[in-house]
Amino acid sequence: MWYEVHPTPVKGGDGKNLVYVRPKSGMKLSMKQLEDYCERSYSLRYGELSRAFDVFVRVAGRFLAEGYRIDTPIGSFAPKLSLAKQITDADEVKDRDVRLDGVEYNPGKLWDKEIKKWLDGFRRFQNPDTKEILADKDKLEQEMRECIKRNNGYITAGMFARYTGLTLYSARKQLTEWTKGENPKLLMTPRGKEHIYTEI
Prior knowledge:
Elements: E1 2-11, E2 17-23, H1 31-42, H2 48-65, E3 70-72, E4 75-83, E5 98-106, H3 110-118, E6 123-124, H4 130-135, H5 137-150, H6 157-164, H7 168-177, E7 186-191, E8 194-199
Parallel strand pairs: 1-6
Antiparallel strand pairs: 1-2, 3-4, 4-5, 7-8
Helix pairs in contact: 5-6, 6-7
């Protein structure tokens, strides 16, 4: 497995930033690619996997909505709840205060066992040095402007990260930095769960 090493914002005992590892950026398969592979390698009819997922999501969604935890061969799923506000007295909790916060997924040990059957060690991919990229502000600003031109006048942290080789955290931090100060270069606008950045 190819992996990359990146710094975190957290300092270690020696005063330097701790690092973390992650699989090499860009290692992604679409559902179509999975379908193609299953058809070639396991004689599964094309579309069968997608249909199975579609039915599972609909059926599981119904039972999750009723509060069930669902145990499956690929792990367990359970509704995740939260309160809309901080409450210290259990008797004060009303139905309207409860919110659905998504679905908790616990893969169990199945994935570890399956992945280890195929895993043949790790190889380091020499990903770009984040500190080095962030040090050259003029070049970074030029790349930001080029990226905006290529993407119809706006940019997201994900786009900027892919374009520059920065981590998502560093890309978001740099873009946000350009929205501050007396002469900001970018305007940040919420869009769904992410932000888009446009030139001022």
